Amino acid sequence: MIELRTPAEIDEMRAAGRFVASVIEATSKAAAVGVNLLELDALAHEMIRKAGAESCYIDYHPSFGASPFGKVICTSVNDAVLHGLPHDYRLRDGDLLSLDFAASVNGWVADSALSIVVGTPRRADLRLIDTTQRALDAGIAAARPGNRIGDISRAIAEVAKSEGYSINTDFGGHGVGRTMHGDPHIPNNGRPGRGLPLKPGLVVAIEPWFLETTDRIFTDPDGWTLRSADGSRGAHSEHTIAVTDGDPIVLTKRG
Known about the structure:
Blueprint: H1 7-30, H2 37-51, E1 54-55, E2 74-77, E3 80-82, E4 96-105, E5 108-117, H3 123-141, H4 149-162, E6 173-175, E7 182-186, E8 203-206, E9 209-211, E10 217-219, E11 226-228, E12 234-236, E13 239-242, E14 249-250
Antiparallel strand pairs: 1-4, 2-4, 3-11, 4-5, 6-7, 6-8, 8-13, 9-12, 10-11, 13-14
Helix pairs in contact: 1-2, 3-4
């Protein structure tokens, strides 16, 4: 079921967006050589407690997860690109880290992701991260009344393909509202002019993610972390946005 939010409801969602943005900012700044992934999870957990927010992850147990997630933030490192389960790992110089976080504030959810390099960057990693960010910007720009879901998907794919990256459509963007994941699904590749018409009040998370040399993934033995099939690195960018009569509103805008 797809629900359109009123302008008043979108205003109420801004608090969740600001909070999620603040956690992404804080954890990305805290990520440094020698920092343990469990420390980043603890930081996010403490911010949730202080804000009186609720985690969308800790009890999350969809069909593709082996068990309830049990942590409050996804930390995907290097060849891991999605659903990275925080574990006892200290970040090393040159690691590519993707942070993905969703939380509920006053009953409304926001969801966002960011990829960074810890320490000394590889040029290929910076290019990959930049491509996900530009694809996210393109997808957001396409989120206007008169367009369809396929226009967002196509805008994302054009950026990825221009850089030579292939695209996995198993996981992508999604509706956001009272829960973290809802309709519609927004694949990162699609045909323009196809799919659900975009109308004011639609709130979605747009999330391009790409792997360096493959589009195939597998699930880590932890039952959650998704890794590239060939060991190449991945990056992930995401914002929660609201479609309006004019420019889309980026609810999780940082900075």
